[in-house]
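Aim 2 progress update. The chain analyzed this quarter is reproduced below.
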Amino acid sequence: MSAEEDTELRDLLVQTLESSGVLNKIKAELRAAVFLALEEQERIENKTPLVNESLKMFLNTEDGRLVAGLVTEFLQFFNLDFTLAVFQPETNTFSGLDGRDNLARELGLREGDCLKGAPILLEVMRRNRQKEKDHIFSEGDQVTCIPKELPAKHIAEAKKMFEFYDKDKNGELNKEEVKELFVDLFPHFPKNMLDRYVNDEFRAVDKDFSNAIDYDEFLGMYKKLFIQCRSVVAQDISGRAQSACKVPEGRQTTSNLGSKVRMWSLLWFPYSGDH
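Predicted structure tokens:
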């Protein structure tokens, strides 16, 4: 075989390995092996492992372990084993980090549709971006934020109250119990409006005509009411913001809008001191 043919064959092989991803995997494995060999050599020569003091201090904090756990979960999710083989020994995080379930729980995330087929880090980034897009209404020094989604702490509180009203512990509530629960959740809502909402939604949710719904069905009703209320206030804020540009200076008023936003806070956060 001539040198030219040998070069062509080599280039073809490299191209094939690169396009299939095998070459990058080999390179990653090689880098991991080199790093581990060097680390072992350093340990033998110095008798003690090299210590990154600033990293050690960071990982001794709750936030530090959370960050390292998110990075580790990201690498594990995509099976980046060779990168992980470098990351774990270099950061000394072979143990002591939370797994995926505990990370999600600590961040207030549920292992549902939002986390399917994605690392937790992606959902954290999505939520941070969403917060930036949330409608914010300012009046004087006060700022009221209207969340895009029902906060996790409210879902947790609703679950506790659902369990409280589930006296026989069968995981279901009848219509009257659901009405009482909604009145308890929203003490400032007009009771007749809540009754009407529960009647309509209960009929739609109770597909097997058992006159009872489980927690997931109740949560769906709870979230739907949140979305409906939010859309009313958010649309009003958006409309006022656009019309404010057309109103002559000195004639702009925000009192009605402020009242609506404060009413939103009162209805959805009746026990919260930070709204």
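The longest helix spans residues 215-244. Confidence is low (pLDDT under 50) at residues 135-144, 244-255, 271-275. These observations will guide the mutagenesis experiments scheduled for the next reporting period.
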